[in-house]
Amino acid sequence: MHGTFTKSALLLTLSMGFGHAGAAPSISPAELATKEGIPRPAVIAHQGASFDAPESTAAAYKVARDLGADYLELDLQRSKDGVLFALHDDNLQRTTDVATKFPERKNSPANEFTMAELKTLDAGSWFNSAYPERARPGFVGLKIQTLDEVIKIAEGNPQHKPGLYIETKEPKLFPGIEADLKDQLQDKGWLSSAGSKLGKSNTGVGQGKGRVILQTFEKDSLKELQKEMPNTPKILLLWVGEDGMEPKSKVTFAESGEPTKAAYYAKQEPKDAAEFEKWIDDAKNLGAIGTGPSAQRTDLNDQSYSDLVKPEMNKLTHDKGLLVHVYTVDEPVDFKKVMDAGVDGIFTNRAAELLKYYRRAPASSVSQLLEDHGY
Ligand code: G3P
Ligand code: CA
């Protein structure tokens, strides 16, 4: 079943008190998106085209760009010598050969490596082992990308220039990273629009006012981002659990007896409607133009979390004058479910599939683009 609530979910939602969402919106989602220069619905390529190529590498970002994604998404970290780069995990084990190159430091956080050291790592071969059906010889030896390099990729196709959707990842590990990011975006000319407006002659969102969106799970980092870049759109990411919304149940995954984390998260929900609303109000009051809630995926894979995009949740968020960009869904059944629930954009690992769903099918296939780029 998709696009509608199950009976139990509906009862749950009503029992949480979302049935009375409040006053009419001060600005509609469509008006807000236009004002901010953000496509609606937005196609946000999560760590690039990361279903088809190793996440956060040049291959993943070039394919996402050339497919026509609106945004290249990245998780921002800072090397020991101060270079900003893209990496999701806080250590290098899952997505590089750090255990071979630096066995004694394999568990160290990525920020304890210099950029020269990080650049020695192979950030592609793990993908070939994990996903043999999508493996390519050209992925072997792919490198971790600096922010500068991702910016160059975003600027590199004259026919389509995506924007950047940048998350301050674990910002407590990187004091001052918000100011560093501002300096670098400013230096590269990315804090002002490049001139053209969204429209027929535009070559992509990367030319307009909404060319950068900043995202974080942490309210303190949102405050810093707002201080450093007050005119750049920001999203507060939403999550139920540690450092996020207080959950209704305090039972841990280990105590729950659930077979997978996804099954556990599927049963997690905010403590009550007031807890959900508090996070929406905080997002607004701290300067965000929207929220990035988690989604429960039909396949319950390892990126399936609590369902924070129920229709009445999205309505409440819209009524408070905010957009909703949901993370992270990849299948048409879930694209339909979250769009029917009212979201304004989707983080996806499968930009090609989402573009097809929106009838913005790319001219070239993923495999053609990978070949064109020598992968
Ligand atoms: O940034 C949106 C989404 O990516 C947040 O979760 O863990 O995939 O970075 P994560
Ligand atoms: Ca992210």
From TrEMBL:
Keyword Signal: yes or no? Answer: yes
Question: Boundaries of each GP-PDE domain copy?
Answer: 41-358
| Any one Gene Ontology molecular-function term assigned to this protein's record | phosphoric diester hydrolase activity
InterPro entries, sorted? GP_PDE_dom (IPR030395), PLC-like_Pdiesterase_TIM-brl (IPR017946)
| Any one of the GO BP annotations | lipid metabolic process
- Signal peptide span: 1-23
Keyword annotations for this protein, in alphabetical order, are: Signal
- Please give the name of this protein: Glycerophosphoryl diester phosphodiesterase
UniProt organism field: Pseudomonas mucidolens
